[in-house]
Write a structure and sequence with these properties.
Layout lengths: L1 E3 L2 H8 L5 E6 L5 H13 L2 E6 L19 H10 L4 E3 L3 H4 L18 H4 L3 H16 L3 E5 L3 H13 L5 E5 L19 H6 L2 H14 L5 H14 L2 E10 L17 E9 L2 E8 L8
Parallel strand pairs: 1-4, 2-3, 2-5, 3-4, 5-6
Antiparallel strand pairs: 7-8, 8-9
Length: 285
């Protein structure tokens, strides 16, 4: 695997590479990230991953400085997965001058995650667009755990007519249901035992909808209350339409199997996010 620290090195390495499949990351890789590279391998001739902790998407009181940086282990994992090139720029390479131009996402970028992390999606879209321009992939793979990010990036690609196929990869979970995340490493042992509750609450709401309930606001409130009773500081539990993440029709005219349940909450000092699709209940004879 070739490691490129500059855009010029990357361009030389990828000359004549064929169909490029790209996996952008912030490092501290886990099995969920490696699943992205596995899917990328099936989609392209050459697989490129990037590791860059993007300051623009962190708020002033967030964890930019303490975000885990594990380059040696990350490099070994990517090599094991057969990644062809790793783009690992420093801040000066990505932002040689102050980034005065920003990509402004649509109103969806100010809801859910955007409501609790102002400017987050501005930073995400800006760095992703820059990475797309540097890597020039034909395919880019993103995890479905960050479902709102996936929707917004896909929309950006469509709106700017970028010739890139955006592929979503299913969330990888621990055996107890916790979605794998780089921030899981912040959890204490006690918090790690409690952490799967977020997925259980969201799954319970999704199952209730699949069973026929349509009082979405009540289900959301019950989910928030369940988490709060167990010490979580809840940002949101929300039922949304799976295609555009819009709020479902209040008269429940939306088909329930097209809905998704999203949640974000802090457990101690660690903020976790997750989402689950509403899936049809099996027929019982």
């Amino acid at each position: 695997m070739k490691i490129c620290h500059t855009a010029a090195d990357l361009a030389r390495e990828l000359a004549g590479a064929g169909r490029i499949a790209f996996v952008p990351t912030m490092g501290n890789l886990h099995e969920g990230h490696l699943a992205l590279t596995r899917l990328a391998r099936a989609k392209g001739d050459a697989v490129v991953a990037s590791i860059f902790v993007n300051r623009l998407q962190f708020g002033p009181n967030e964890d930019f400085d303490r975000y885990p940086r594990t380059m040696d282990a990350d490099r070994a994992g990517l090599e094991r997965m057969g990644v062809d090139a790793l783009f690992a720029p420093d801040e000066h390479e990505m932002y040689p001058v102050p980034q005065l131009y920003r990509v402004k996402p649509p109103p969806l970028g100010e809801e859910l995650e955007g409501a609790f992390r102002p400017g987050f999606f501005d930073g995400v879209c800006t760095v992703v667009l820059k990475l797309f321009n540097l890597v020039r992939p034909q395919v880019a793979v993103f995890g479905k755990k960050d479902r709102q990010q996936l929707k917004i990036v896909r929309g950006m690609v469509q709106q700017f007519n970028l010739p890139i196929e955006i592929v979503g990869c299913e969330t990888v979970r621990a055996e107890d249901g916790l979605a794998l995340s780089s921030r899981n490493g912040y959890l204490t042992a006690t918090e790690r035992t409690e952490a799967p509750r977020l997925h259980r609450v969201l799954r319970g709401i999704a199952d209730a909808i699949a069973s026929g309930r349509r009082d979405y606001a009540n289900l959301e409130a019950d989910g928030r209350a369940e988490l709060a009773r167990h010490g979580w500081q809840v940002d949101y539990v929300a039922v949304r339409h799976g295609l555009g993440l819009r709020i479902p029709h209040p008269e429940a005219f939306d088909h329930p199997n097209l809905l998704i349940v999203l949640g974000a909450a802090k457990l101690g000092a660690t903020r976790l996010i997750d989402n689950v699709d509403v899936v049809p209940m099996p027929d019982v004879d």
